[in-house]
Recover the amino acids of this structure.
């Protein structure tokens, strides 16, 4: 009866927690309000596995308490960024309970964007008046109606997420990321010179549409004094910049692979706090519809978006030890 006693089996890992814990955090600075709406998945590992093996629950911090802890720490600590709040949660569980060996928090931010009124004369005034300090300018923006003080619009450009994991006696490991960032360009992309065999039907393309939905996830090489907001925005802007190229001319992409690598390289060049970055760029195909049979010349004006299949290109780039970029 070896299996009943469990002598011949061991756990590879265990973890439990609450998923999709939702919070809307409002920072009220006078009339000016800022928000972060988040969804968190929290997972803990405990030192003994008796709740699994014998059903003894004395060590189990109920998942309901885990949910309440997310709510309570939002109140007690505030939510500056999803990364900082995830770090606070990991630290809380590890310092409050000696029998918690590991805490992991995955958090997504709901993409709310402050309402902005683009008023051309007011915008022009901002640019000329450089003597204003930043905070004065912010105040002015808020009072003259360019940025709304407390109203937001759901703006699904991309979803920001983070993943923080901490083992007892170790430093936390922080990943940040973005997903579902859909971008498209109508030229300055091609794919030529690829390997051919008897099954190849793809024609070389000098000029094609390039559409992808970017997923990027990067690891920080430090935890303290990181500007999580600034780095996140820089990674997003760098990926967009490499995809699109200069605003007038664009930049030629010889393959999704090359664009993916170039954007990762530029991220590591610009952001010393990023140690490693994974990017996934599905190649979402658009085919020019053949209209010759209906007597029309379609010069890449009418295209058919294909739901599937899509190509899938991915890569993870990291710094070599001691490399200077
Ligand atoms: O940029 C591309 N990379 C590929 O690997 C590939 N394969 C394919 O059919 N089209 C493309 N495009």
């Amino acid at each position: 009866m070896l299996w009943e006693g469990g002598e011949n089996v061991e756990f590879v890992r265990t973890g439990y927690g609450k998923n999709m814990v939702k919070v809307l955090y409002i920072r009220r600075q006078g009339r000016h309000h800022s928000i972060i709406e988040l969804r968190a998945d929290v997972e803990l590992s405990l030192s003994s596995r008796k709740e699994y093996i014998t059903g003894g629950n004395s060590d189990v911090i109920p998942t309901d308490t885990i949910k309440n802890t997310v709510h309570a720490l939002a109140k007690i600590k505030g939510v500056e960024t999803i990364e900082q709040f995830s770090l606070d949660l990991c630290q809380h569980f590890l310092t409050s309970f000696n029998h918690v060996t590991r805490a992991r928090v995955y958090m997504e931010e709901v993409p709310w964007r402050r309402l902005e009124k683009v008023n051309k004369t007011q915008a022009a005034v901002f640019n000329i008046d450089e003597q204003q300090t930043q905070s004065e300018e912010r105040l002015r923006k808020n009072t003259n109606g360019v940025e709304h003080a407390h109203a937001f619009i759901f703006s699904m450009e991309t979803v920001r997420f983070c993943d923080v994991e901490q083992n007892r006696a170790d430093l936390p490991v922080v990943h940040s990321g973005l997903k579902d960032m859909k971008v498209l360009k109508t030229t300055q992309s091609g794919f030529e010179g690829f390997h051919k065999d008897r099954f190849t039907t793809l024609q070389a393309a000098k000029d094609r549409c390039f559409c992808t939905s970017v997923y990027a996830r990067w690891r920080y090489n430090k935890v303290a004094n990181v500007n999580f907001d600034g780095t996140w925005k820089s990674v997003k802007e760098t990926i967009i910049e490499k995809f699109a190229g200069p605003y007038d001319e664009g930049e030629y992409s010889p393959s999704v692979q090359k664009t993916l690598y170039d954007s990762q390289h530029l991220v590591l060049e610009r952001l010393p706090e990023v140690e490693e970055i994974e990017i996934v760029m599905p190649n979402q195909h658009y085919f020019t519809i053949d209209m010759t049979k209906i007597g029309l010349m379609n010069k890449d004006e009418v295209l058919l978006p294909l739901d599937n299949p899509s190509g899938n290109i991915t890569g993870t780039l990291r710094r070599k030890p001691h490399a200077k970029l």
Residues 125-133 have pLDDT under 50 and may be disordered. The pocket of uric acid is lined by residues 191, 202, 255-257, 283, 311 (CB under 6 Å). The first strand starts at residue 16 and ends at 29.
